[in-house]
């Protein structure tokens, strides 16, 4: 992990000067404030600020439902109800601001979630550091033969060594040329906004990312899933650990109804009902395509 001395100095100063506040705080999240959690070889995630807690979700919901609700359900039960029935606005009352350092190709996946506020380190104004994501050997995998978006068997031996060498040498050569184009030694030097286009997608960038809890849960449901690309999944998993401490009741409901749950199509639900009645159901009799049936069979462990 690469925290600059300036960033570390800011973190140390902030942690050394806590301030009293009248606003609600979450003890579980207070322990995460400003601390950088290492991810990948040079990346990290750290909490810069947050707003709200489990109580804020309940408070917002009861504004809608009225005073009588509190007598009918405890807070955790209400949060589970909200999650189970796909309510959104009560969860939007909580917000989280993160500082993230990540490879550019991961950032391009991440930015597809357009429901957050983002401010990224600008290579138009600043010079990027010579830091690249180089996968660990166990992450070097061949293309999957059944999933166009996934990985297959891990590369081994000479082929794995050759791939690692190419990744390292190509990244460093590109950065050498980037530095040369920027050089002021006896030449004008190319503008930073143009020189950056020569950099590879595995160079690291940084951003501040602020999102409400409803949209954060949507991000985590997709990116913390076992099928997500490893390089973004490890960031999602680090954030999951923070959110579990921040809003434990909401995260428990999210884990139960989203992360560890599964969705069935109408045909899939019909197939389950028929199986429970003792019928033998096949791909042909289910009305599902081969791909749908393969996923259904894996889910049901057929």
UniProtKB/TrEMBL annotation:
Pathway this chain belongs to = Pyrimidine metabolism; dTTP biosynthesis
Cross-referenced InterPro entries = Thymidylate_synthase_ThyX, Thymidylate_synthase_ThyX_sf
MF GO annotations: flavin adenine dinucleotide binding; NADPH binding; thymidylate synthase (FAD) activity; thymidylate synthase activity
- Gene Ontology biological-process annotations: dTMP biosynthetic process; dTTP biosynthetic process; methylation
Which residues hold FAD?
89, 112-114, 120, 212-214, 218
Report the active site residues.
223
Q: Which residues are noted in the entry as dUMP-binding?
A: 109-112, 120-124, 196, 223
Q: Which cofactors does the annotated protein need, by name?
A: FAD
Q: How is the cofactor bound?
A: Binds 4 FAD per tetramer. Each FAD binding site is formed by three monomers.
Function statement: Catalyzes the reductive methylation of 2'-deoxyuridine-5'-monophosphate (dUMP) to 2'-deoxythymidine-5'-monophosphate (dTMP) while utilizing 5,10-methylenetetrahydrofolate (mTHF) as the methyl donor, and NADPH and FADH(2) as the reductant.
Task: Give the family, as the similarity comment puts it.
Answer: Belongs to the thymidylate synthase ThyX family.
**Protein name, as recorded:** Flavin-dependent thymidylate synthase
Organism of origin: Paroceanicella profunda
Q: Which gene encodes it?
A: thyX
